[in-house]
Amino acid sequence: MRLAGLGALRSLAAPVKLAGFGALWSFAAPVRLAAQAETGIFSLNWGLFIWTVVLFVLTLLVLAKWAFPLIAGGLEQRHAKIQGAIDDALSARDEAKGLLSQQEAALEAARGDAREMLENARQHADGLRKEMLEEARAQQAQLLDDARREIRHERDRLREEIRRDAVDLALAASERLIRARLDAEENRRLVHDFVSDI
């Protein structure tokens, strides 16, 4: 952009420069001759001074008319580009901050979810452990009850069997006694005492 501005300035200034400087050069010839006449180091040449001021003012006017607006426009465009880049960078930074805060919030939410899941798993495991312990205790109590019932049943069965055997023995003994003695009253009393002792 800067090169295009300088090219335009040169293209505009070339005709003015040729015409203006040619005319000034022809007017400056007597001044040059006068300047050569007075050659002192501290001498003031008024003609040279006036022409220097006139040339300076004309150069300043030409620059102000054509060069300075182009330079100012280029600077304004550059300033606008830089400001746009700064604004883009600021908006990108703000967007990055927003994304970072969203990411941090999502990470914190994920951590919270993980803690909640771990707590739920721990509570579930504790519940299962308690349930399994209760179930094991219930099974143990059931097994003990079954074993006690079985023992009672077996004891009752053995008692019944022993009674039957005792009754059979008592009958056999009483049969022998009856054969040996024919007193029925005495035999009944003996059998009754024997059965009640068992």
Q: Can you walk through the features of this model?
A:
The chain has 198 residues and is an all-alpha fold. Among the domains are: 2-96; 155-197. 93% of the residues lie in helices and 0% in strands. The protein is built from 3 helices and no strands. It has helices at 2-37, 46-180, 184-197.
List keywords for this structure.
198 residues, mainly alpha, 3 helices, 93% helix, rod-shaped, disordered N terminus
Write the layout of secondary structure elements.
Layout: H1 2-37, H2 46-180, H3 184-197
Short description:
This protein has 198 residues and is an all-alpha fold. It has helices at 2-37, 46-180, 184-197.
Oligomer: single chain
Number of strands: 0
Terminus-to-terminus distance: 131 Å
Q: What does the overall shape look like?
A: rod-shaped
